[in-house]
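Allow me, if you will, to draw on your knowledge of protein folds for a short while. The matter concerns a single protein, recorded as an amino acid sequence and a row of backbone structure tokens. Kindly check, if you would, that the fold set down in the tokens agrees with what the sequence suggests. You will find the record immediately after this paragraph.
***
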Amino acid sequence: MSNLEFKFGSEDNPKGHAIIYFEEFEEIFASYVINFPIKGELSKYIPEMFKDQIPDEEMTKMVFPPVPEKFNGNLDSLIKITQSRADDLIYGGSINSNDTTSAMSKLNALANEYSKLCTDNMRFLAVNMTADPYTGFITRIQPAWLLRE
């Protein structure tokens, strides 16, 4: 089990895209995380003169904005947006918005954990799902939560 606090969605079946939000007094700060189902090597798309500035590792997720930004609304409106888009919603705790390094670090730790959860879930589903030979529809052998125990 992860340490992620899902407010909408489920760690047993992460969607691969989530809003991670934080609180600072009465204000909400948020960022969006996308876990890519297909890995990509970003350096292939960067001009040669900038390649030294790009990490060699494969790009598996994107976090935007990289530092949580103030959300213009309350928690109820954030939940409604999340539900209408079918995103996961993850509570990240409290932050000090003036300490951007700490806020970015906290966000990246949660984004990495979410990305790992999504990747592990995709691997699990790839092994434990089958396609009906007649219709081609994908069906689970058993619910994921039964097989993981």
Q: What stands out?
A: The first strand starts at residue 5 and ends at 8. Residues 5-148 form one domain. Strands lie at 5-8, 17-24, 27-40, 59-71, 88-94, 129-131, 138-140. The chain has one domain: 5-148.
